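Incident log, structure service

09:12 report received: a user says their structure output differs between two submissions of the same chain.
09:20 pulled the input from the user's history:
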Amino acid sequence: MEDDRLVQLALSRGCVTQDQIDRAKAEQKLLADRGVDHGIYFLLQDLGFLSEGDARDLRRSVSSSAIRALEVDGFVIQGRLGSGGMGDVFRAGHPDGRIAAVKLLSAKLAKSEEYVRRFLREGRAMQRLSHPNIVGVFGSGESLGTRYILMELVDGPSLKSWLVERGRLEPGHAITVLRHIAQALEHASRHGVLHRDVKPANIILGPPRPGTDEPFCAKLCDFGLARVEAGEGDPDLSRGGLTGTGLALGTPHYMSPEQASGEHDLDQRADIYGLGASIYHALLGQTMYSGKSSAVIMYKQVTETADLQLLRTAGIDERLVGMLGRMLEKRRAARIATWIEVLAELGDGPSVQPVPVPAEAAVTTPPAAIRQPVVRLDPPPAAAPAPGRLMPLVLATIGITALVAALVVGLLLSGGPSAQRVGPAGLAGAIAAATAAPGPRTLLLEPGTYQVALRLGAAHRGLHLQAAGPGVVFEASGNGPVVLCEPGLSAASFTGLVLRAAPGRVALEAIGGGQLQLISVEVRGGVVVGGGAISGDGVSIAGPVTVSDRGSLQLGDAQIDGLLTVDRGEVGLRRSVVQGGMILRQSMSTLSGVRCLGSGPGLLIERGRATLHEVHIAASGIGLQVHGAEVTELTGLTIEGGGPAIVWEGERTAAWRWERFQLATLARGLPGVLPSGPGADPTQLPAVR
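09:34 re-ran on a clean worker, output below:
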């Protein structure tokens, strides 16, 4: 074995000691007990016993083709994690500490042009997407004749494995999967990607995101059958081969009727059906149809209505049953049409709540045991009732709810059972130790000023930095960002911190797919999201914010004191204030309950797509200026200031939902829209012809 040769060579050269090898073997056994195959040579590197330079020299000394073939973009393959229909997936580590998963196309399938096209399509589709509920992809290509995709490593089973090994999901867990994957597929749809193979095997149940009561974070993977709309200079790989008319694409048990019939003009309703069939399977532990062959199952998909009575008999709430019934309608015209509608019925709150426990059990019961989920589907807001939404299924009494809230607050303040309290002097060592340990880790930070310039990558996955009290300040000693989120970072979060940059400098930067969640964080300096993803609640930013390169910024209850610029990215703001105006170019934008205040123009949208709900704009110049963009929903818009309220340039569609305007001045490009003062009735836009 090459692993043994490298270890013995390292020992003979004095690069490592026998004691270090024994410790690596003990770690290997622990990992093996968890089902992870990890070589001793790579563990010596992961544990810090073998330096990067020594490891490089050793690999050169053992210069076999097998060792060279183990490297992909600097990542060294360390052990097989599993197999799929198109090849194997391996764990891989980088000398700088990053960990990833590498999917290799099997040599047999590499001889088929169609399977090569599928593999290329998967890499291309996933690189287009950046969402917490989609497995991230860092790159793809070919190494020594082998096609590969370099992906985020998710620590968790597939939904299929869960159902086989543990049985059906509880309703609360199933709703969590439904919400997460619906959010992922809505994101994919807006970026021109149709999955076409939604099924339990392609849903991974990873660790829960920090700061949530979710049982897990469900992630969508395997876009090998995806249809990808061609972008600028980007050929449409979904054409040709097995995607033509009359050929069925997908997996029979979860295939929509139109897919089973070989139709090619598919839309997001095909994925809605596939997710509905997957949740049906998850709730009952059995698929909707059975048969002796795939042809029989596909015939039933087209001709037989799903038996919803089995769900009722299993005790599933009628509102969830009704929603699944609408997702599983045979006729596309009768099926739920969009992911926006699916998510609207689910609501936007958490999918699970803590189960109340007796007071005497609060001290002795581990936190993981008291957070057993119960079904919760959020009701619609009182101001805009929607009869199709689902109401909460379990309501706790006020006294018990207060008890659970106290328990949760106590856990947050203590950082949880695995939290380690550290001060400014011990932060670097504590982060190094935390990243060497498996699973999420929480560091509880004592108040003080931390002179750091944090570079967080794949090795810091699941790291949670939480302030033990007010006064935890991070500031960089140089001119670089205080925190840099690099490719591969995911499931990491900050709570209650202050990030303070030098005047005019960037405090927080996320690049190339790095993901970070912020909870009650104050950022004093600029924020740059260049291909990464920043999300959070209760965030205050004093400085300009820039989102580009398909980056994503998703904030609630935020305060931004500076210009927000989004260029080929995605932004979602809820109940937030932006002091400095917004410029949105060729981007996907969702603004809900937002106040936009600018000394010049208020909100500029150039191309791209946007939805605006209950948005208030106050600007000395133009309030809302639109150039060639799709503003599909524009409801509850208020604009005040001295300049024109709206300047509209471009096409408009009658199907767009526009209503309830309060304008201080006239609108250009929108005939018939009149100003209305604070005391006047809301103005209804005339139908667009």
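09:41 both user submissions now match this output. Likely a transient worker issue. Closing.
09:42 reviewer note: The first strand starts at residue 71 and ends at 72. DSSP finds 17 helices and 41 strands in the chain.
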